Batch of 2 targets.
Target 1
Amino acid sequence: MSFLDWAFPAFLLAFAIVYLPLRQRVDWRNRVIVLFSLTFYGWWDWRFVALLVFTTVLDWLVGRAVEAEGDPVARRWLVTASVTTNLAVLGVCKYFDFFAQSFSALLIQIGMQPDLPTLRFILPLGISFYTFHSIGYVVDIYRGRLKAERDLVTYAAFITFFPQLVAGPIVRGGDMLPQYRRPVTTNRADIVEAVWLIAYGYFLKVAIGDPAGFLSDGVSFHPAQSSGSYVVLGAIAFGVQIYADFNGYSLIARGIGLLFGIRLIYNFNQPYVATSIQDFWRRWHISLSTWLRDYLYISLGGNRGGRVRTHLNLLVTMALGGLWHGASINFLIWGIWHGLALSVHRMWRDAGGRLEAWPFGPMLGWVLTLIVVGFGWVLFRSTDPDVLTAMLTALRHWDWSADHWRYVRVLATLIAPVAAIEWWQWRRQSLTAPLNWSIWTRGVAAGAMAFMVFVMLGAGSSGFIYFQF
Amino acid sequence: MASSTSSSDFVLWFRDVGGEVWRPALIAGLLVVGALGLYRVDPTIPPVPIGRGFLELMFLSTQMDRAAELPASDVLIVGDSSSLMGLDAAALSQRSGKNVQSLAVMAPVGPVGYAAIARRYLERAGPVRRLIIQLSPATFDMRDAEFASLGFEQMALDGQITRALPWWEGARTKLYATMIDQVMPLPLRGAYGASYGWPADVREYIWSGHGTMYDPTASRPLDFRPIEGEYTVLSGAMARRLSEMGQIVRQLPVGSVKLLITPMRKAPFTPSSRMIRDTMVAEVMRLLGLPPDALLDLPATLPDELFVSSRHLNQKGRAMLTDLLLAQMDLP
């Protein structure tokens, strides 16, 4: 099931009716969460519920075993086994065919005729997300930062809570488990924020992200593209699409969580105002970037192994972060691109470079960041090698016509309302700034957004982009 | 606000949510009512790229507009999408020296719909020397429900695009067409967006193409259903429509009528396919009331690599079919 399914409002209402009377009774409340979350997940494909249950139970058991085990070597082995199992499941489901086909291509290049099998797995929905939830949980116990959850149902609620299950945010045990261990409360402020987030989230996805997708998917990203102008416009359009789509989803998830007393994090913090690539990654898909920092970059040694090792760790982390998005070479290249950008930025900072000290430094930093990120979006979106080749080749040819102006007009119309809200948030230095509007201002804005969702749903909505990761 | 463990907590929650939701719901509701009012006042909706079948609707509306505006021509082509996307009428015009125009649409419009569009054009613009009816055998088994599903046949018969939509669909489509599309015209999606761009560009292409266009979709895995599956059934629904079309066509001011049966893919054609095809085509000729020499002598099949789908030729195939038809354009 997705937030855009027609059945979802009925599902949410059913959940509210069952959950709310029980929300002060921790044990029953968590059972309801697990039951409804598994139903939500199984709505897509019931066959993969078993896999979700398996990994949930496994990591709960491992977590308890790691905490109980006194021998450091045995603890390390347990964690390694858990992480390996999780990554193996993820690897087989998501990456086996990619590596098999890549290896085949390599063998063909050297004159061989391989006949490697492919598995053609259906990618289990949300596997990239719940796998990371589990790995983070086990590693946190190992590092002594978290106490293992004794109750399986409580742990399962943490892993499977349906707003965050299929597309994040990637949650941490330290943030979430205390919420599942105590009775929840919701107050009027939470409800106000929840309603706003849900309205704004749907607006972003349906009225901004999907139409931006018409531009990027239809006009820009295709194998016959020959206009450099359309490549640049396509990078902007896709940047709008993926931000609106994913931030929209994350805001809806947080809003739904708040309605029922569960606080998920904000996954985005105005990433397109970033004045450096490092700043961008503090604002974009925050739950993933911090996860990669804490469980991959630091595990590789972080910045503790000297300058060369630090840059290598950065590159590897970002490359794997790119690959996390999908089993396709373009995601790997995208990750490496960002790794290189972060590396260059770090070198610049280490050499004493401070753009913010220059005249118009922050503005220059902002423009440079947008260029780097925008080029990255061209790599990210070009999942087909022919498309990628066409897009890069087209950058040599520049033209401009009435069609380009039409494209710009549509793009500007889509960006305007989001920019207005984000400017307000930036001025107030708070993502919740719209909550300080008067009740009627907020009501009119949310109502207009809901109406736009109603209208634009007729144009047809594509699925959430991050469902495919 | 403190929460209690009693059912009043449940009620308080709904009260709080209701208290926050009613204003946006009221605003959204008023806007929906306004949109509905707009729709009720004027239910005609210009074709916009939203909703089910909007692409086909765009083709149909463009051809209906052309039927209302085109000046007189020498040759008129009508038929389904195998004609709309399988011929290059502009090239036929240029190379034959005759004014060739197409008002071909797509299969759900149906033979009676094709004839109605042609009649509207001919009654206004004047007679043509030749009428070419192009049909794909893949449409011979269509049922009444398929002609009714999106209402295209009725639109062609009525001469106007009025979609019978549920009120919410009509309201938002109307609003989209009158406001959103004016401010933020969205391009078409997928291959149509990549090849043509915006709906206006498709319309312009059809106009400049003398009523024809190409199918921009990439070659899809072609279904390998044996060809007999597409020939063995001439449905009652199709037979009735062909018969009625024949009656209409006999009243039209045309010099001669020819029938072009769109070639099918070669690979699925089995040895018995030819016999089945010929039998089917003879029946179609009979229903249309056409003499044997009205059938244009074109191959029953073309190589698979000339097709983008089971029904539509790709650009290379389109050029080849155009060449083949040109050779048959022997007008006095």
Note: Chain A touches chain B through 50 residues (CB under 8 Å).
Target 2
Amino acid sequence: MFKHIKDIFKVTTNGLYCFVRIIVSVCLLTAIFYYSYSYLNKIFYNNEVYDGAGFHAMPEDSVDIIVLGSSHAQYSYVPAYMYQKTGLYSYVLGSACQPYEVSYEMLKEALKTQSPELVIMEAFTATPLSSTCAGDSCFVTAAYQMRGEEKYNVLNMLPKEKAKTYYNDFINNHNKWKDIESIEDLKPKEKEGIPNNFGYVENYFQWTENYWYPAYYKDSSIQVELDAIDIESLNNIKTLCDSRNIQFMLYMVPMDSISEEDQAYRYKIWQWANENGILYQDYVDMAEEIDYRMNVHSDGSHSYLNGASLITNKLSSFIKENYSFNSHTNYEILEKKNRKFITDYSYLMYSTEENPSIYLDEINGYKGTYIFRYIPGQVMTNELIEKIKELGFINFDPNNTYYAIVKDGEILSEGNDYAQATIDGQELFVDYYQILQNNNIIPYEGVLNIVIFNTDYSLFITKNIQKVKPDWWNAYKDYWEYGYNMYYTKNE
Amino acid sequence: MLIGDFYYEIPTSFPELNATSFYYVAFVFLAFCLARPFKSILRPIVIAIANTIFLYSFGLNNFVIATSLALFSYISGIIVKKFKKIYVLLPLVFIQICFLGLSKYDVFDNILDIVMPLGLSFYTFKNISYVVDVYQDKIDCQYNPLLYYDYACFFPCIVAGPINKAGDFFEELSKHEGLDYKDAKNGGIQLLLGIFEKVVFSDYLAIITNNILNNPEINGYTTILGIVLYSFVIYLDFDSYSNIAIGTARLFGIHMPKNFNSPYLAHNLKDFWSRWHISLSTFLKDYIYIPLGGNKKGIVIKYLNILIVFIVSGIWHGATFNFVIWGALHGIIRIIEEGIEFLLKKIPLPKKLKNIISYLGIPINFVIVTLLWLVFRCENINEVMNIINNAMTLSPLDLSVLELTHNQILWMQIIIVVVVILDILRNNFDMLDVLAGQLFIFRWALYALLIVVFLVMGVYGGSYDPSDFIYKWF
């Protein structure tokens, strides 16, 4: 019997040699396959990854505050302003319509490399308002910012067959070969650096004629229950934070058109927070208190930068009052990025001041570069003329055209026909017909325009001051329509 | 399971072993490791287990039906060996044909809710060929049920052929030779190249072809392009499967006959059918044409037999009337060719002219076959006529309607050129042997290039909807 078994399994030397050769060939083929795949994965990737993916480039154990939530978190919390007020480093881990369960997975992944003192979660997605953005993207967009096991936990929240199509970026995107136009497209994606805004997404103030405070039901008689998954996720996040001695709080961003049902859900979240000893800041309720105005600080849904500054500043005060912790060790790169943001997006550039005279006072102290353009064509008040002259434009005559280029309060060029200057390698020009930066046209409207540049000239904002005829119902007012044309551009 | 950048979801149920899937390759490799390194005594057992697993992966009914028909055929072989009478043979064959026919016409689907089993047409013909060969004493009856099961349900060719002869199979299975490195290596390469051919060439051209032929707004030369591309698609699709099947079988030391031999280089339809789906042509010739008398009973009977064979071929391919028409048209054109050949033999032509006529036959034959593929592709004759009418407008070629990028058009052109060149080379050389004779560095550079091309240009993933093998459902 034993001899028979031995006979069955007897391997000839030649046979064994052949077999080993085949195994080695298979291993070599597999290795070529695997490394080709890994390399190609860096070329064929999803283009729609948010800045949040740069979280992985943050120095380990550097983040003090992690902010989770939907796009409302991304648009309402400015890490640089939190830093300015408290010295704390923050990062916003959010994505469009990000559900609570996804926030939990994101936090789990984040805590592998970070030890924050505080986790703040924006609570929007538990309300029915978030049903307007349901779909695969709620999970997929978040998953694309993640790595490791948690990424696939998020994708597996989708139906199985759909989840499979998103597992591997390369498999999903390899057909982009049809769009490749140059050899540059075949270069691997550069490793992501720390994003400049630490997950914050910019949104700019637009032209407005009026504003209002967010409308919502103060009291709701509707009985609702939070979704079981939301409660489970909140509990999971709390448990995770507790296990790591991390504070956890919730906040809600003001938004318009909150129905009675939405209101009932908001109160349920508040109730859960109270029951679980979690602090909760509801800025819907506090909108008037912080003077957060729709159409000025928000587009009705997402906060503008000026609105975000209000919320972040309020949050910073709240944190200082209610928590006591220090920042992690100073990180030069994080300091630099935060300071640059503050400089670039100084309140001056995004001031919501509606009175042009007061606004011009603010311009007076601006350290950066701006272009001034004036064409006679509208009524100019004496006050406004005086303010313009206080900018140093002593030759300004309201009956004549006037152009000027100013840096740090110093007029580098002025004239009635044009102004032209080369500053910091930038060629600036303004005349009756156009405003140019390095021969690129800067858009404007109307006859009185101020173009303000940030420190590295990668951004500019055009402010257009127009006096308009008031409507009949407020004809008694004599007011200026202080419209902002927000043009945002980056130098290539 | 995360392996580096690649995430793999471990299946919760047994996955289907589609020939172009990762599971199939892994399955074949595992079976090979168990079957080949050791003395070949284990080989039949491993093949039987592999057959079972393979069939089961496509559903229990596939396993049950294939195994039941194999058992029926096995018993039939014993019966006809004992009772060598035609009236014993014919009912046994007829039963199998009836089962095939009823399945093709969805009778079982309508009554018992059993979908036509995978590859039924192929393994039914295999079973029939075995029984007839035993009856004719061409081969010995196989009394070992395990060996017969290995043959009848041999997994590499059960889905879409080739239809291999039992005698050759049993002879090779009974050999106890050790592992031949070159043979196994070539088998593996052929398997992988078959997958490459399907996923990179065939499926890609199929997308463009379907976009053209399924769009009634497209006409003229663009439609003609679609018709021509379909010829390539069906060839590449079937050839790729055959390569996968033959390559897999070779890994197990079973040498299957070539199923395609550069068919579009055929000079006429007779030549075409000696190059296209060779195993089916051989079956039809050996088990229908010759038993009916072949060309031995006069010219009228010969032409009638040709027509019958092609009609049977048409019916075998599909259950709708257009397949019958397709088969009949092939038969009629074949008969016309016979007539023309007869006439040409009577006329004394210079050899050079004969050669020119012969080579002119290649594009002419390609056009005939391509047009006939239309009948094969469409669901009814109306659809065929619509496409032809669209083509007859002869409006200029306009690829912009397909919304293809420059790269996609270029890739389509490259595929066509590569396929034509390879076919010309394959007509004259054994390309696997040619490849084996190259330097190590060249061969591995080529493998690496093919892997990259497969990864980038292959039709798979969420952005594509890859097609099944066309012949899978016959």
Note: The CA atoms of residues 203 and 304 of chain A lie 5 Å apart.
